[in-house]
Amino acid sequence: MKRFISLTMLVAAVVCGMVCVRANADSSPPKRRVLVVKSRDISFYAPASQGFVKGLKSRGYGDTTDITILALSGDKNQDQQTIKAQIQKNNSLIFTLGTDATRTIAEAHPTCPCVFSMILDPISLGVAKSLAQPGGVFTGTTLQVSAGKQLDALQQILPQAQKVGLLYTDGDATSLAFLSAATQDAAKLNIEIVSKAMTPTTDRKAALEELAGKVGAFWLIVDPASAGPQALADTLDVAKSHKLPVLGTSSANVHAGALLALSANLQDLGDVNAEMAAPLLDGSAQPGQTSVRGPRQTMLSVNLDAASALGLTVPNSVLRLADEVVDSGAAKSGSK
């Protein structure tokens, strides 16, 4: 009889254990869902996207988080439908890269926390009331290294630069805000900004040719009319024919042929976004009360090949500060 009771108790204990394990499994919290939206499927957004994902994982949001990454196509109707479908899912947080992605998400009226990155002016874009207190569901980081710092870097190599030309999208609030600040910063360095507004019907090459006769350098700014793929190619082409240096927006511009760029370290910028996202995911912070941040690290890139073609000598003081130097001559001599 005792043996029967012991066996019964053993079976009961096993069954109870199985029920408890099942109960614990059923009670485990559901995975968080993070949606990452890039303005386009181009390499420009890759470092920040990678930095963000890596940063989340390093902060404990790896196995417990499903991360979905998508890119806008540029077709407004198609993109709106795609985002509408994604917004209806149970997102814990949305991370946007670039102006188009941020604007498209904002127009879909999300209710979950949203973190933006790689934009210039969130206030002009309408996703923040102020940098200190954004309000609403958005916060994030700006891409912008101050115009004054960029122009100062150009002057270190080209002290004779007095006029700098740039293109921008006509009526774009973000570019107009940047241009206003840039004009003030440039005046402190005795530099004049000569700008040309671009409309869909403006001939970019003709506009650049017009600027080339008035300025000593071109400046690419974060605006599709200025630094989009075709705009970059056109600017470099006209600059080459007139022997004008180009101040770029990123390391990629410098590798393409620009003389230099002082830009945000995009991988680190993504990590800053992850640092901001972590308390939003665990509920210990609210986006509307989380201050917008700027780049934590900047990156100076210099193209010695471009300098040589222009007959310029880059001071050693600049080279010592450079994070990246493009020099095919050094690569060739090193391979011998």
TrEMBL record:
<dbReference type="InterPro" id="IPR007487">
    <property type="entry name" value="ABC_transpt-TYRBP-like"/>
</dbReference>
<dbReference type="InterPro" id="IPR028082">
    <property type="entry name" value="Peripla_BP_I"/>
</dbReference>
<dbReference type="Pfam" id="PF04392">
    <property type="entry name" value="ABC_sub_bind"/>
</dbReference>
<protein>
    <submittedName>
        <fullName>ABC transporter substrate-binding protein</fullName>
    </submittedName>
</protein>
